[in-house]
Structure formats: structure tokens, C-alpha cells
Predict the structure.
Amino acid sequence: MKLTETNYIETINGYSAARWQPLLDLIPEIENATDFGKMKGGEINEDEILMPYAVEASIISRFREVIYEIPVIVDFNWPEWEQGKEIVSDKHFDFDSIDIPTKCKIISAIARNDRFCDGVLLSAFQSGMMLKILKSIKGQIA
């Protein structure tokens, strides 16, 4: 099923706790992770420029698979979503103050942005933002 701006709220709000479980099962591993990966490249070797790229830990790959399987990825114009930009730029944002569909839009924007700017998803894990989002989802499902 494809989540769009016209159906994502109703669809996501209709998900059972069991449907969320594969995503929530990642929380302990994320909490215990000591390394999510690193950026490589960005240097010039002789006549070759190596563009920066992310080398991600396996938890990020599994996370990516799960968010597409459930799905939580919303198809919307994420580059123009000003509220989302404000939320992710606020290190102290209280994710409990927004509903689960909005959290899914945040996850979507980060995951989609990562396809164009390698390392965005890695950064969301390294900063702890993704863990905060997942814990907030868990708290609102329970």
C-alpha cells in the first residue's frame, strides 16, 4: 500500500500494535549500539575526487527495510514541508507533542532526503533523533 497525503493519517492510525512491532523491536538494538557507521570519501586522490558517502551499520539497513515494509513512508512534497524542517532542526523537540502520522512524515522526509544527500539517515541515528521518534511512537501505541 502506498501512503499519500490523502490517505496516510487514516491508514497509519489504523495500524495495529502488531504491525508496529518490527519497528519497535529495533529500539533495544539502537539503544545499545555504539556505532551507527561513518562518512567516508570527500578527498582528492590524484586525478579522482571521492564524493562523501555513508557507510552504515546493519541496524540502519534493517530500519530502512522495516519502514518500507510496514509502510510508514508517506509520499508527499517533503522538501517543501516547513514544519518538518523546524522539527528536525530543534534538538530539544518533544516528539510526544505530535501524532504518529506526523512522526511518520518526519521519518519519510529523513529517509527520502538520504537518497539525495547520503548520510542524512546516519546523522539522524547518531544524533539520537531517530531513537526519540521510535520511543515516542511506542509510547503513543501503548
